[in-house]
Amino acid sequence: MNKPSTRAEPGKRNTMNRLLAAGRKIFALKGLAGARVEDIAREAKVTKQLVYHYYGSKEVLFSTVLDDASQQIMQELIALDIDDLPPEEALRSLLYCCFDQYMKDPHLGALALEGIRFHNASETRSNSFTSESPALVVKFSAVLKRGMETGVFRQGIDARLLLASSALLMSGGFTNHYTMSVLVGFDTTSEDGMRIWREHSANLILASIMQQPVRL
User: Fold this and answer.
1) Is 0.70 surpassed by the pTM of this model?
2) What's the Cα-to-Cα distance from 68 to each of 10, 48, 110, 125, 192, rounded to whole Å?
3) How far is CA 80 from CA 71, 140, 192, 200, in A?
């Protein structure tokens, strides 16, 4: 089933936004398997029948929630105003933005992890992440190119590999909270833990590409 159209009258759009927000919360707390349409409807203050009317199934609603979340993430990163910043500062700003998206949204880490399970287990359609990621690659590559041209970054950096590695590292304390916390010896989602992981991860990524070593 296709994603419901976002070009809807205000009343319908408002209802669909409430359903997406409710789904985001319930899916993050209970996962796709544990979430019930009744719980999502109750959270959104609508009837269960209305959920099925707009989305057809729990799986389509979940897919739409993932698509909506990934679109917000990608658009914020792509819109980040870093073109006039020195390359090292520009890259650090991108890394911090990626981290801060998870830090500010208590449901995003669990939702992302559940999304990985969903995509691994299902044949899913292309979504906003797939369609908008090339623009983020271009933005990331431009920062690296400026850094290499000015001698700040070393030559021969693969932008896609570094972007993928950076995304995993910056989000790992949220999407793999238990393992990371055990390994590092502190809660990566606590206030102090997030501050430490944020700085360490950004410094580690920059140290891997700088011409001059960065003190970690």
Assistant:
1) yes
2) 18, 21, 15, 14, 30
3) 14, 11, 26, 22
